[in-house]
């Protein structure tokens, strides 16, 4: 895990991975729409999907694919269109 923010932009979608004191956060932005996937800093809990990084939780998922599908839905794209910075690739249980 890293304490540095990592940003990746592909096809008009920006992904930002960063860590807070308590969470790992993968935040997305596309044309003003946002979505975020968060997990506890230890990396073993369920993933929380939010409409924005500090927003209220919408749903929890065990699997990264399911969380990414929900995040992509919030952005109006396919989950396969979402860029994933390398430090976030191991999120999920």
Layout of SSEs?
Blueprint: E1 6-10, E2 13-19, E3 23-30, E4 33-40, E5 47-50, E6 59-61, H1 64-75
Antiparallel strand pairs: 1-2, 2-3, 3-4, 4-5, 5-6
Task: Produce a short descriptive summary.
The chain has one helix spanning 64-75; strands at residues 6-10, 13-19, 23-30, 33-40, 47-50, 59-61. With 93 residues, it is mainly beta. It has one domain.
- Judging from the principal axes of the Cα atoms, what is the shape? globular
- Please give the count of helices: 1
Summarize the main sheet. Answer: 6 strands, antiparallel
Structural class category: mainly beta
Low-confidence stretches: none
Count of beta strands? 6
Quaternary state reads single chain
Q: Helix and strand string, N-terminal first?
A: EEEEEEH
From the N-terminal CA to the C-terminal CA, the straight-line distance is 15 Å
State Rg: 12 Å
The strand line-up of the biggest sheet is: 1-2-3-4-5-6
Mean of residue pLDDT values = 93
Percent range for helical residues?
10-25%
Number of separate structural domains: 1
Approximate strand percentage: 35-45%
């Amino acid at each position: 895990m890293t304490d540095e923010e990592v940003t990746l932009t592909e096809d008009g979608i920006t992904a930002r991975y960063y860590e807070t004191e308590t969470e790992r956060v993968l935040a997305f932005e596309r044309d003003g729409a946002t979505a975020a996937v968060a997990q506890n800093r230890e990396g073993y809990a369920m993933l929380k999907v939010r409409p924005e990084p500090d927003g209220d939780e919408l749903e929890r998922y065990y699997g990264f694919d399911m969380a990414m599908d929900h995040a992509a839905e919030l952005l109006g794209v396919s989950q396969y269109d979402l860029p994933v910075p390398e430090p976030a690739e191991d999120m999920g249980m």
